Amino acid sequence: MKKLSILSLVLLFGLMAFGQSSTVADFEKNTEGYKLFLYQSVIRVLNKDKNPDFNMLIRNLDHLKFVSTPEKEDDPKSVFLKLDKGVQNEGFVEIMSYDDADSKCHVYEREKGGKSTWVATLLMGETAAAMEMEGSLDLAYIKALSSLNMERLEEMLPLKKDQKKEEKKDIEK
User: By the 8 A CB rule, do 42 and 55 touch?
Assistant: First the structure.
């Protein structure tokens, strides 16, 4: 019975970590930038128009994780390249790429057992970032993405220490 309990726990923990990218998890652990984790229920709150198609768009989405380097710290280009290489080494396949002089975005997918995990690596000026999405978007409803309330999403981002201090000073005045 004890062996069965231990085996059950090992399987449970193995399934919990099933689709996650170890590259993104390591990046999250070792960076001091933004770290935002959104479940579907929170993403629904960002539906500014109460558009039913927005809920259809995200209905198969489990969670979304966004992690970035602090702005103007580290070497964002080398962090971006390291993220790209790490995700590729995990068996993710690049399905889309956008590169220009100011920004880069590479989107990867890995499917195991009918479950998809998507990872995007981003280089935006002085910041490198990774976004991980477990589940999928129903692309038939992609136009509903315009209902995403970006201002509310920005309010959810943690402020940097200096920004918090400045806001506190402004309030005290």
Answer: no
Give backbone dihedrals phi and psi of 135, rounded to 5 degrees, phi first: 105, -155
Residue 118 pairs in a beta bridge with 109, 133
Q: How many CA atoms lie within 13 A of 103 on its CB side?
A: 8
Q: How far is CA 11 from CA 2, 21, 37, in A?
A: 14, 18, 24
Residues 80 and 97: their CA atoms lie apart, in Å, by: 13
Per-position pLDDT tens, the chain of length 173: 333 333 232 322 333 334 689 999 999 999 888 888 889 888 999 899 999 999 999 999 888 898 988 877 768 999 999 999 999 999 999 998 988 887 899 989 998 887 888 899 999 888 899 999 888 888 888 888 888 887 887 787 665 544 544 544 555 55
CA distance 38 to 105: 20
SS3 172: helix
CB 63 within 8 A of CB 133: yes
Rounded Cα distance between 12 and 21, Å, is 18
Q: Are 70 and 157 in contact (CB under 8 A)?
A: no
